[in-house]
Design brief:
By secondary structure, this protein is mostly helical. It has helices spanning about 15-40, 45, 60-85, 90-100.
Length: about 100
C-alpha cells in the first residue's frame, strides 16, 4: 500500500493508507458476504440433488418416483431376508439334497 497515484491536479486524498484500506474493504466485503450466504445453506437437501448435482435430463413424474421407491424397497427387503438367514425355497432344496446324499 505504499504506492502513490500521480495526479495532475495536486495532492490526492485517496493516497492515504486508510483511504486505500477502506476502498478494498468496501469492494471485497460484498463478495465475501455473498459467498457466505451461498455456502451457508445445504443446497443438496434444499433441491434434492445428489453428490454430483442433478444429473437427470428431466424430472421424475410421481408414478416414476413411486415405481423407483417400490423397487428400492423390494431390493432392501430381499437383502434383509438374505442377511437375517431366512432360507428361500432354493436353500431348502439344497439342504435336503445334502441330507439325502449324506445318508
Amino acid at each position: 500500500m505504499h504506492y502513490k497515484i500521480d495526479s495532475l491536479r495536486g495532492p490526492n486524498p485517496l493516497n492515504s493508507s486508510s483511504a486505500k484500506a477502506l476502498f478494498y474493504i468496501f469492494h471485497v466485503l460484498p463478495e465475501w458476504l455473498s459467498i457466505c450466504i451461498l455456502l451457508s445453506g445445504n443446497m443438496r437437501k434444499t433441491f434434492g440433488t445428489g453428490m454430483f448435482g442433478d444429473w437427470r435430463s428431466k424430472d421424475e413424474t410421481e408414478t416414476e418416483k413411486r415405481k423407483r421407491l417400490a423397487k428400492r424397497a423390494a431390493k432392501e427387503e430381499k437383502k434383509k431376508g438374505i442377511s437375517l438367514g431366512k432360507s428361500t425355497k432354493g436353500d431348502v432344496d439344497e439342504k435336503e439334497k445334502k441330507e439325502t446324499t449324506l445318508s
